[in-house]
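Project outcomes to date are best conveyed with an example. Our students and postdoctoral researchers have been running inverse folding experiments weekly, and each run begins with a structure described purely in C-alpha cells. The record below, which covers 114 residues, was selected by the lab manager from last quarter's runs and is presented without edits.
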C-alpha cells in the first residue's frame, strides 16, 4: 500500500528503531511508548486489520505471535509477563491501518481498558 506508514517502514523508506526483521516480519519500538518496553510486531504484508484476516494468513499470524513472545522474553519479560494487544478498527482504537501487535512490558498494566 503506497500510503501506508507501516508498509513504508517495512520497505525501509521510513526509519524505525528496529528490534528484529526477517522476510515476513518486522519488530520496532513504538514512537510513543506506553510502558517501559513497548514495541510493535508487524507482518510485512499489508493486512489492514484482524477483521480482514484470511485463513491463509493463519501461519503468518502464528509466527507473528511466537516472534512477539520470543522478543518479549529476550527483552526481560519472561518472568514478569507482558501484554500482547492487537487493536482493530474504530472501537478497538486502531489508528494505523496495517495489522500490528503491541507488546507492552516492564510495569504492571491495568485492566479493563478504558
Ligand atoms: P494503534 O493505535 O493500535 O493503531 O497503534 C499504532 C501505534 O503505532 C501507536 O502506538 C503509535 O505510537 C505507533 N506509531 C505510529 N507511527 C509510528 C512510527 N513511525 N514508528 C513507530 N511507531 C509508530
Ligand atoms: Zn501497510
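After processing, the design step wrote out the following sequence:
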Amino acid at each position: 500500500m503506497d500510503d501506508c506508514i507501516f508498509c513504508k517502514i517495512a520497505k525501509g523508506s521510513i526509519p524505525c528503531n528496529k528490534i528484529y526483521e526477517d522476510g515476513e516480519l518486522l519488530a520496532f519500538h513504538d514512537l510513543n511508548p506506553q510502558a517501559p518496553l513497548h514495541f510493535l510486531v508487524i507482518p510485512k504484508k499489508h493486512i489492514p486489520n484482524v477483521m480482514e484476516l484470511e485463513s491463509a494468513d493463519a501461519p503468518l499470524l502464528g509466527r507473528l505471535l511466537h516472534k512477539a513472545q520470543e522478543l518479549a522474553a529476550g527483552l526481560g519479560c519472561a518472568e514478569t509477563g507482558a501484554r500482547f494487544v492487537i487493536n482493530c478498527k474504530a472501537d478497538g482504537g486502531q489508528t494505523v491501518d496495517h495489522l500490528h501487535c503491541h507488546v507492552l512490558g516492564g510495569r504492571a498494566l491495568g485492566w479493563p481498558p478504558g
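The pocket of zinc ion (ligand 2) is lined by residues 1, 4, 6-7, 46, 98 (CB under 6 Å). Strands lie at 18-21, 25-29, 37-43, 83-85, 101-105. The training component of this project remains on track.
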